[in-house]
Amino acid sequence: MLFVHRVTGLEPGLYLWLRAPADADALRQAFRANLNWESVTDSAIKAPLYRLGRGDLRDFARMLSCQQDIAADGAFSLGMLARFEPVLRERGAAAYRELFWEAG
Q1: Residue 29 pLDDT greater than 90, yes or no
Q2: 4 exposure class (CB count in 10 Å sphere: 0-12, 13-18, 19+)
Q3: pLDDT of 50-77, one tens digit each?
Q4: E runs forming strands in the chain
Q5: Rg (the chain; Cα; Å)
Q6: How far, CA to CA in Å, does 57 sit from each of 31, 54, 74, 94, 97?
Q7: Residue 103 clears pLDDT 80, i.e. is over it
Q8: DSSP helix/strand/coil, 40
């Protein structure tokens, strides 16, 4: 998830960079129905990029980032989505630490 504030060539708003295109249907079902899913992918981008909504999300990005000003003041902010549940079911709660580390 990208909270775009000031990026040349992209309108401010909420974007989804879809690393695994096979996940598109599951994400569409999990997200709000009123999101746009407007493709903004061009030939320079290998994975699909979707604009889900337009607007100023600086305050929202700051709130989601534990009130860190950099999330609102930067060119963009991001949040990562991951499938924790299948891994935790298979390997137990101890796997959470590894998943958290892998997310960066």
Answers
A1: yes
A2: buried
A3: 999 999 999 999 999 999 999 999 999 9
A4: 2-4, 13-17, 38-39, 49-54, 76-78
A5: 15
A6: 17, 9, 12, 35, 30
A7: no
A8: coil
- The C-alpha atoms of residue 59 and residue 52 are separated, in whole angstroms, by 17
pTM of the model: 0.80
Compute the distance between CA of residue 41 and CA of residue 71 in angstroms, rounded to an integer.
24
Alpha helices in the chain (DSSP H): 24-30, 58-64, 70-73, 84-91, 95-102
Helix (H, G, I), strand (E, B) or coil at 2: strand
Residue 23 per-residue DSSP state: G
Structure tokens at 7: 């990026």
30/66 Cα distance (integer angstroms) = 24
Average pLDDT value over all residues in the chain: 88
